[in-house]
């Protein structure tokens, strides 16, 4: 009896039960829907953070130039206060992407960024208590720079978390995320002007800073925390060196830079140009609103299409080409035929609206295409690669924002808006041609994935279990 029981016991340890076998096969089955309840919560929370971050970027536009003038700050210094955000964010993105994100993980970088950005915005609201003159300008510059450190931390961390949570649905997710970017661009200036009318200089900054800080407990409670263990101290540097040696990564970074220039040059230049059309500040705001609405409406659609069809490279080329044509009509360009209407509001509105949709065509696929270039060269799908890609994405976006506004203002002073928009259109058109040539010369390698049939997978599991191997090991072998 004892021998039989011992035999039965040993047999039970070797032979898998029906439940264990079913569990093994279940684990080998395709994953469930990416839009589980937890991931929906993660996406909503990160979208809220992204929206608030971009809201603050445009919050000051309706009222700060007037306030700065009261404190004796000239237009050049005011422009520097606006531009320092993008410049600091550009530099900080490399630090976050190469060092902090792989070291401590995106969760803590996001928490740090929210605290820094929210605190700096609140402090900015009390700077009107300072005396007039250069002290006010210096404190505005420093506070705005600190806010940029926090904002860029939020941007890079959000992108890394989304890559890791939605790696197989990245184009759809980025398309939806960019909807909140456009919403922030749209509502930021509107909310800033409305709150300024209600409560003066301090109210819009206190509200925005308070909302940023209110996201801290939500991040702490609801965002999943992942432990990142750095096994190699110098791996992060190697990843950046390897990525920057990939031609596709360099080309896409330049494309991001040029693409942001194509719209950021309008920030300091559109308002004086629109006065020739008889538009007041409300009319100028409406022009930007048209761009934001078409961009917001297009990004989810583009993301969904790219989820179904592998047209990322095609959309990149077409997006830059259409954007270049639309930019020619902003002025319009002096060399266009005489039958093209001049200084007509509807021409400006139509061209800006189409440009918003065109920009969605190239902005949404840049990040997935950048990651695809890295994976093709054998880079791993880990936090180092994700952090590097997010750092590059954020850095060159902000660099384009700074250069576009700065150079756009200089060109308009010397060449007028019509020729400035023509030069920008030419730059965007050259980017379209460069992308078309590059994608033609460097075609994507087709990967072949081999999958075993279900009976074969079941047979291998049974064989491994009978030999005394662990079920998890057999699953790993079968999946390979």
UniProtKB/TrEMBL annotation:
Major facilitator superfamily (MFS) profile domain boundaries: 42-444
* Membrane topology of the entry: Multi-pass membrane protein
Which branch of life, at top level? Eukaryota
Gene field: LOC116304925
Cite a GO CC annotation: membrane
PROSITE patterns assigned: MFS
Q: Name one GO molecular function term.
A: transmembrane transporter activity
Q: Which organism is it from?
A: Actinia tenebrosa (Australian red waratah sea anemone)
Q: Which Pfam families match?
A: MFS_1
Is Chaperone tagged as a keyword? no
State whether keyword Nucleotide-binding applies.
no
Location relative to the cell: Membrane
Write out the entry's keywords from A to Z. Answer: Membrane, Transmembrane, Transmembrane helix, Transport
- Membrane-traversing stretches: 40-59, 79-101, 108-129, 135-163, 170-191, 203-223, 244-265, 277-302, 314-333, 345-366, 387-411, 423-442
Q: Where is the composition biased (Basic and acidic residues)?
A: 453-473
Q: What is this protein called?
A: MFS-type transporter SLC18B1-like
Region of interest (Disordered), residue spans: 453-480
